[in-house]
Amino acid sequence: MVLNAVASIVLTPILLWAMGVDNYGTYMAFAAVLSVASAGEAGLGGAVGINTNRLLADSASSRFQRLHETARTAFVLITCLTAVVFVMVGLLFHGDIGFAQTPKTGPIWLLFCLGGINVVTSTMISYLSNSAYGAGTVMWSIVPLFVLSLSCTILQIGVASVADALWLIHLPSVACALLGVFVWYLIYRNSNYQFGPPIRFGWHTSERGLLFSSALFSSMFGLANLIYTATDRIVINWAFGAKAVPAYQLNYKLVELSLSLTIMAGMVSLPKIVSGMLSKESSESARAAKSSRTLASYQGILGLTAATGYIVFNDTFIRLWVGHEMNASTWIQVAFAMYLILVSSGDIFVQLCGRLSEPGLRFAGVVVLAGGFLNLGLSVFAAYSLRWLPGVAFSTCIAQFLVCATILWRVQTVMGINYTREGVKVLLIPLGIVLCIAVLKASMGAFSTVGIVLQAIAGLVMIVGYAKLIGVDRESVILEIVGMWHAFRSK
């Protein structure tokens, strides 16, 4: 993850320079549409991983084989359907969804035809990777996939430096995707002996029911995440043009990296907390509930610290990284910082709701998906009716806030918390602190050295005060970090 982040920070400005702002914006919007199409497997990948793990644990060899025969058939059918739909949309309606063809972009229909290959490969990789993951193979793919990702970006930079047509620039992505299928097939074959040849297909009734019932709620989380992360670019490209996409996307980079670190820190402790809360021993359950409250506090502190740093330093970072013309408005940055806080603080609630019971999983899936559609609807309204670009970012904040507040209500009993007090502590106060820092920034200027120093000091004072308010001290933070590190190393 760290290597990917470093590579992205180093190579993104070079790719932006090679492609130009308009072409880069169009390509980022195309990548978002491609992400939506690649989600056509509708949660089947996650269902395959979950059921592979369960059936291997139960040593149910014959049912394991029937499950994967059915899954392979389902994936072939879904792959053909989604690829055909994607290509047809590109051929017939690319102009209607905001992809204007110019001499510089080259034939957009050809770009979508090549993208159809990516839809096929991503669906195949979903089956292969989730099967291997369900069989316990986690680490093998890290190095080869990093090399492929790095090679793809470097090749795209090389092509973009000599050609403008987007379909040519996309060719390395197609080639690396095909190689990615080969890499994942090797990992899949070696992850469990039952994945060896011959590879059979089937359509077994009981396994089909098992697969699709598991996929239903798994797909809700995946689809909602896709709406949150991809549709903003599509809406902005459609309403404001390709030139508006790069600044919006690049100003989200630090938020994306911060969320990865914050959520990863929580994932280290989460399995032990869930096991404890499911324990029949009341003392163990109580300890786990206390640990969940502690983790919520730490993730809230991490999110607030990252959001404060983002507000204070992002303009300078963007100016040094890709140039001052890519600086987004303060309103967009405030919305991104708020979203960072909401996701960091609310992650533990969503995780516990979805992991502790089947009804909780259904509740969380429905709420998260409803939040995703609310986000999309508000984004379209802000872009088309209000013509306000920051409104697209604030739409995400509104939807995420409602999701967090709703799921917090669901888990308040099992976590042993007061709904109102916890909501004020982990949601409202951090959001208020970010607004205060944003007001300071607006009054002092984004690039004033004195202003940046004063904003940083004010943010630090507020963070320390907030930590004391929620009962987090330096010693407990050090102990928690050490514990997370040991847990991470043990994995």
Record keyword descriptors for this entry.
single chain, 491 residues, mainly alpha, 17 helices, globular
What layout of secondary structure does this protein have?
Layout: H1 2-19, H2 21-38, H3 44-57, H4 61-93, H5 108-134, H6 142-160, H7 166-191, H8 205-240, H9 244-250, H10 253-277, H11 282-321, H12 330-355, H13 358-385, H14 389-415, H15 419-444, H16 449-469, H17 474-490
Helix pairs in contact: 1-2, 1-6, 2-5, 2-8, 2-9, 3-4, 3-5, 3-8, 4-5, 4-8, 5-7, 6-7, 8-9, 8-13, 8-14, 10-11, 10-12, 11-12, 11-15, 11-16, 12-13, 12-14, 12-15, 13-14, 14-15, 15-16
Level of helix content? over 70%
Q: Tell me, what's the shape?
A: globular
Task: Indicate how many domains the architecture comprises.
Answer: 2
Strand content: under 5%
Along the chain, the helix and strand elements come as HHHHHHHHHHHHHHHHH
The assigned structural class equals mainly alpha
Report on the structure:
With 491 residues, the chain is mostly helical. The chain has two domains: 213 residues, no CATH class; 240 residues, no CATH class. The chain is built from 17 helices and no strands. The chain starts with a helix and ends with a helix.
